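Ligand: adenosine-5'-triphosphate. Inputs:
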Amino acid sequence: MKKQFAVIGLGRFGGSICKSLSEQGMEVLAIDTDEEKVNNFSTIVTHAVVADGTDENALKSLGVRNFDHVIVAIGDNIQASILTTLILEEFGVSHITVKAQNDYHEKVLNKIGAHKVVHPERDMGIRIAHNIVSKNVLDY
Ligand code: ATP
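Predicted complex:
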């Protein structure tokens, strides 16, 4: 059976996760409060819906608790990111990945049960620096 993913927040990060998962043949439910963003993803993912990640009843009615993996990609609104993560943890979702804005945000997310916390800009900076160094080592 295909794995089911839900992505909450369709900015650059959440959007590229949606595209990549869909290209890999996964079932993806894309959620955002912004109707225009949702419309942009309607032809890319399995389902795209306008909903608020902090609205427990909305997530319940979408069946989010049954998804294999939920990615919280809400950016600037740290409060919404934390509340959404808390709801998912209370649902008992088995894999919750969350994008953090800063170290304090990361600390809170870990405390409330996020399984993986990512900082895309920081993580990519580290990866690129490692690539540059290993390339230079090979060049000598
Ligand atoms: P990126 O760097 O990935 O582009 P960002 O860090 O700039 O994102 P935002 O643009 O603030 O982040 O948020 C990402 C998306 O999350 C936006 O499309 C926004 O509409 C959506 N979003 C914000 N709050 C909620 C919420 N409560 N529920 C669902 N989606 C939300």
